[in-house]
Amino acid sequence: MINIEFLAIGSMLIYVILIGLSIYCLILFIKLARRGIEALDLYIHDKKNNKHNPPNDTPH
After folding, report:
1. How far is Cα of residue 24 from the mean position of the Cα atoms in its chain?
2. For this UniProt entry, which segments traverse the membrane (predicted)?
3. DSSP secondary-structure letter at 60?
4. DSSP-derived secondary structure for 1-59
C-alpha cells in the first residue's frame, strides 16, 4: 500500500514538474519569437532605407 502511494505521489510530482517546464519553455519561445520579429522589422526597415540611398562604392 505504501509503495503504491509513493508511486502515485512521485508520478504526480513528475507531472507537475513537466507542466512547469513546459510553461517555462513556452515563455522562452515567445520571448525569442518577439526578438526575432523585432530584428526582422529592423532589417526590413534598414533595407527599405538603403533602397532609396544606395551605398557609394566608388574608391577614393
Report:
1. 10
2. 6-30
3. -
4. -HHHHHHHHHHHHHHHHHHHHHHHHHHHHHHHHHHHHHHHHHHHHHHHHHHHS------
Record the cell numbers describing residue 5, joined without a space. 502511494
CA distance 29 to 1: 42
Give the model confidence (pLDDT) of 32-45 as tens digits: 999 999 999 999 99
Please state whether the predicted TM-score (pTM) of the whole model is above 0.85.
no
Cα–Cα distance between 17 and 23 in angstroms, integer?
10
